[in-house]
Protein: Glutathione S-transferase family protein
Amino acid sequence: MARAQFSAETAGGGAFVRQPNRFTGRVTPHSTSPEGGGPDDQGRWPLEAGRYRLIWCRACPWAHRARIVRGLLGLDEVISLGTVDPIRDERGWRFSLDQDGFDPVLGIGYLSDAYLSTDPDYTGRVTVPALIDTVTGRVVTNDYPQLTLDFSTEWRRFHKPGAPDLYPIELRPEMDALMAEIHRDVNNGVYRCGFATSQEAYDEAYRALFTRLDVLSERLSERRYLMGEQITEADVRLFTTLVRFDVAYHGHFKCNRQKLTEMPVLWAYARDLFQTPGFGETVDFDHIKRHYYATHEMINPTRIVPLGPDLSGWTTPHGRG
Structure:
């Protein structure tokens, strides 16, 4: 069997199995803790503007979701933002983009410092996004699927006027099922292709990925967005994978049946979202390419970052809506 990029997350058959999220606290108005207090006995932190800091990486699709949702809902002034370098070293995500290499609010040089401050015995992979309590320096959550849903539901009192409802109550049963399929076959599916260490595991992930993309393409041929005429959390989750598809997943992760630009419906849909305020301006193709090609040394040992593809198509008319 080939050597694994993340050996602790590789199953016996060579399949990539993503680690569980270690920190699952939640910020909610239902917390019984006083203002300035820690989590209550159910792990619920008090809802306070200006207290929590979202740590993200421009390259990471999971973190990118949180950045987009935070902006769409108008939480920019309520939840501060810290950005890590796209290149991980042996200690993980670094704050080397900041002056002197330290996050100006948290005062730490590595995101792992916050992880180990919260759990000194933590040995797993340090991940983004992470929501950090600036009072204690502790990690509240790195549970990326729940984090963005909480931005829509638990943080509602701080939403900007006219903020979109990204998680409508009446659509949640259908949305939850759809987002689970997208996660399994697309969001995580590209990683299951890229990090597979057996031909069988890769083949299975590849087929599931493109079968799901075909289904989504058919769905989107009949509606502007995944749930109809309104952008929802489901669109955010699909977008962050699609926007990385040609620059990283097609070549680096061997997801090469077609490029996104060769799938007409999905390409138009992705351009539609890219050109929507709150989406395209959060995309950094340079960080994306440098992260994938220069961090996964088992896949790309030379760490050469490709110059392509041509990105000019992202701003061309999409013909939807």
About this structure: The chain has two domains: 7-158, 169-315. Residues 24 and 141 are 5 Å apart (CA to CA).
